[in-house]
Write a structure and sequence with these properties.
Blueprint: E1 2-18, E2 24-42, E3 47-51, H1 62-74, E4 80-85, H2 96-111, H3 118-128, H4 132-137, E5 140-145, E6 149-152, E7 160-165, H5 173-180, H6 190-201, H7 205-212, E8 214-215, H8 218-224, H9 226-237, E9 244-245, E10 252-254, H10 259-269, E11 275-280
Parallel strand pairs: 1-8, 3-4
Antiparallel strand pairs: 1-2, 2-4, 2-5, 5-6, 7-10, 7-11, 9-10
């Protein structure tokens, strides 16, 4: 069984405040994009998780936890051989680890004949991480709470996305970025509500979405990743579009008006040794249950 595990963007990412459980209350619109890891699952006498990156193999990977949690829920032994082929850069804000875990839940549910619904799998996913639940459906969705409360939204029209991967490695990045947030970075969810209205309304969606992109970490990132500010400034100076943070960073994205504009961005950023890729928004029918091979 071979399952794609798509990356995501946060079109909006608002932090409403800190919760009593130590997490932050968020409201965010997420979108799967055409950059994916590949998860391969086969029967095995025990549980085995392999990856070409040694630090992502074995029981330190979220996929391992996903398998153990699902086996406990289903009352079965966690017997499976799982191989992760990485294409999504690690710790860039694109949700690769969470997507891998969601793909594993979908595949193992089939392999072990558990017959759990997506809602039942989502309750397992919520225990693994804040955005794992989203990847069970993919497409365009509103996520609330810690990010585990998912409401599906109308799919975006065909949309091109320029992704920029800076040459940065940030240890414990997500926790570090959240720790830098202050009340000045919190908001009331208004931007996200307006984007939801735009998506539901269905008119001038692409134009409106581009003007509503927002990320609570943007101000923090200016100080945490000064290189990103320099790269964004150089793109703007050449007449390019505004660059936006992916999740908690440090990857950037923008919605180019044409392939020529994408190429121009790539040329401007070439001296920074950044990876620049052109991908598309991926609809829900290619994600979640739709990503399972026929006959699974």
């Amino acid at each position: 069984m071979e399952i794609p595990a798509y990356a995501k963007l946060n079109l909006t990412f608002e932090v409403l405040g800190r919760r009593n459980d130590g997490f932050h209350e968020v409201t965010t619109i997420m979108q799967t994009i055409g950059l994916a890891d590949v998860i391969r699952i086969e029967p095995n006498p025990g549980l085995k998780v392999d990856c070409e990156y040694p630090e992502l193999a074995g029981d330190q990977n979220l996929v391992w936890r996903a398998a153990v949690e699902l086996a406990n829920v289903g009352g079965v032994e966690p017997n499976a051989g799982i191989t992760i082929e990485k294409h999504i850069p690690v710790a860039m804000g694109l949700g690769g680890g969470s997507s891998d875990a969601a793909a594993a839940l979908l595949g193992l549910n089939e392999l072990w004949n558990l017959g759990l619904s997506l809602d039942e799998l989502a309750s397992v996913a919520a225990r693994l991480g804040s955005d794992v639940s989203f990847f069970l459906w993919g497409g365009t969705a509103l996520a609330q709470g810690r990010g585990e409360q998912i409401t599906r939204l109308p799919s975006l029209p065909p949309l091109a996305v320029t992704l920029v991967f800076p040459d940065l490695l940030v240890p414990n990045k997500t926790a570090a970025m959240y720790s830098k947030l202050t009340m000045a970075n919190f908001s009331d969810g208004g931007v996200t509500r307006r984007m939801v209205q735009t998506l539901v309304g269905g008119q001038f969606v692409v134009e409106s979405v581009g003007g509503l992109i927002f990320n609570a970490f943007s101000e923090v990132a200016k100080w945490a990743f000064p290189e990103l500010m320099e790269m964004s400034r150089e793109v703007a100076n050449q007449g390019g579009p505004a660059m936006h943070l992916c999740g908690a960073g440090p990857a950037l994205f923008t919605l180019p008006s044409s392939e020529e504009e994408h190429q121009s961005i790539a040329e401007v950023l070439q001296p920074h040794s950044a990876g620049v890729y052109l991908v598309n928004a991926v609809p829900p029918e290619k994600c979640g249950m739709g990503s399972l091979p026929a006959g699974a």
